[in-house]
Amino acid sequence: MSAIKPRKQVYEFGEFRFDAANHQLSSASGPVLLKPKSLDCLLLLLENRGRVLAKDELMELLWPDTFVEEANLTQTIYELRRALGESGRRPGLIENVPKRGYRFSGEVNAIVDFAAADARDISSLAVLPFCSLRAEGRDEALELGLAETLITGLSGLGRLVIRPTSAVRNYTHLSQDPLDAGRELRVDAVLHGTIQVSDTNRIRVTARLVQVQTGVTMWAGHFDETLDDVFLVQDSLLEKILAALSVKLTGKEHARLRKHNNLHPEAHRQFLKCRFHWHKWTIDNWHRSIDHGKAAIALKPIEASYHAWTAAGFCVLGIYGFMPPADAFGEATTLVRKALELDESDSKAHEILAAIKLFYEWDWTGLPHLLQLAIELDPYNSTVHHLHAFYFLIFGRLAEAVAAINTALIVNPLSLISNTDLGVIYYYSGQFSKAVEQFKRALELDPYFAHARFGLGYAFLATGNKVEGLKSMRRAVEYAGVKAGDSPHLGFAYAVSGDQDAARAVIKSLDIRSRSEYVDPIHSAIVYSGLNDRAGTIAKLNEALENRSRDLIFIGCDPVFKPLHGLAEFRQLLSAVGTRASL
């Protein structure tokens, strides 16, 4: 009796066809006779194709609870190779990896019986970056860009929860087990594959859609086009994936997915680099993203997504205080308005415009409608739900804020920023112990995530635990890679812990920096508030108002500024921003 449970799946490779359910191997010339154990071995190699199966692992799977010599495995592999080689004249299908084991290295097309992997069981999907088969000369922007194009197309349909690019961008190693990745990302299915660009400017893409729970391949295939026709690969991949998942498109949806507007190949390459560097999440890379976005626009000015993603670069520079808000958001607004003029259904453009209205324009009348429209265009855009949570938070609608951020976490449960900002919502709502626990959960995902460390520090200080608060702030400064003397958060911790000299030294350092570069005035206001210097705090908050600092939208709910709630000057600030005190 076979030790390997039959799967309802058919594998095709070369001239061979292996029916896993019936345990039958055939070729163009008829049935291929093999011992059951050899067929078991073939099935294991096919199911794990591309991955090295250790000899010990193979022996344990083929002969469970039975002691056998390695010679048994060697003989089984020999018989299998002989059968494939004699029938197909392709002795290289099964690769011997010295001192490790065996790997099936041939091209395989898998056809699944949906009784084994029912598309109705798939409600969430992760599209991993396509891995290069070349160790040198990789085009990482193309590898991630192809995945992101599929993510954007699938997410916009609203039929499945699609993990965003930020969740999958680190799964770039060829040795990565897609099933392990799927389990880590908590999805029902994973699309993974390889990409190879030849010296003759051709692109070859192989892809495989796998059900995570069963390991069954729902679809597999390969595409070979010129690099300039990469759009044909994208379209074909989307069609095959949707067919495998039994997703039927309306005519409007089908047209939107194929809307390329005669794409310019070099412009598209610049656009892929624009998105790639944006996801690197550093100041230098955001500037590089903008440069590539502008290059794409210069080559193809009528492409809405080029304008939207270039706007995204300016937007984050403004949000995080790396550019004067008027400059950053002014550029972003011009670009995003152009994007919407070109395509009013561009979901990225609506997302960026919502961020501008929230953090800079303070358009509390138009923002709710825009957020709702952005959600309708892309129901599983975690960033839009995140922005929605902030809108609810600053107006004291705390239950709705928690619900919105939890929706973002459904889309991307491993998101560091969403897990951290759930803690921020608890902190801003005065639930300090709950905030401490949530920040700790975020840090379990990444103990070096500075944003969560800073949040934990504030939450500890709010509970009266000054020792742990100061300790967390110091670690956050270290992980953020900033000078202790330039951190307003550490300055606040110094102030409330009684070290006024150290706190005032931070204020002085920030003042000196502001003479040569943009420094958000609200940073000094935070330290002044810790020192209980109300005049200094109000003065800096008024400077922040002149600059339209993004953090002003939170001052009504931030515990740091609670001592100011009774001041007329503070109420005037809230009125100017259009928010209210909610603590």
Overview of the molecule:
Helix content is 55%, strand content 11%. The protein is an alpha+beta fold and 583 residues long. Among the domains are: 102 residues, Arc Repressor Mutant, subunit A; 129 residues, Rossmann fold; 119 residues, Serine Threonine Protein Phosphatase 5, Tetratricopeptide repeat (Alpha Horseshoe). α4 packs across α9. The termini are far apart. 46% of the residues are buried.
SSE layout and pairings?
Elements: E1 9-13, E2 16-19, E3 24-27, E4 30-32, H1 36-47, E5 53-54, H2 55-62, H3 70-88, E6 94-97, E7 101-104, E8 109-112, E9 124-127, E10 131-132, H4 140-155, E11 161-162, H5 165-168, H6 178-185, E12 189-197, E13 202-211, E14 217-226, H7 230-244, H8 251-257, H9 265-278, H10 283-299, H11 304-319, H12 325-342, H13 347-361, H14 366-377, H15 382-394, H16 398-411, H17 416-428, H18 432-445, H19 450-462, H20 466-480, H21 488-496, H22 500-514, H23 521-530, H24 534-547, H25 568-577
Parallel strand pairs: 9-11, 9-12, 10-12
Antiparallel strand pairs: 1-2, 1-8, 2-3, 3-4, 5-7, 6-7, 12-13, 13-14
Give the N-terminus to C-terminus distance in angstroms. 70 Å
Largest sheet, in brief, is: 6 strands, mixed
Named at the architecture level, the CATH assignment of the domain at 119-247 is: 3-Layer(aba) Sandwich
CATH class of the domain at 119-247: Alpha Beta
Q: What class, by secondary structure content?
A: alpha+beta
Shape: elongated
CATH fold naming of the domain at 119-247: Rossmann fold
Tally the beta strands. 14
In angstroms, what is the radius of gyration? 28 Å
Quick check: average pLDDT? Answer: 85
Taken as a percent bin, the fraction of beta residues is: 5-15%
CATH H-level superfamily title of the domain at 119-247: TolB, N-terminal domain
Q: Stretches where pLDDT falls below 50 for ≥5 residues?
A: 1-6
Put simply, the count of helices is: 25
Q: Helix content range of the residues, please?
A: 55-70%
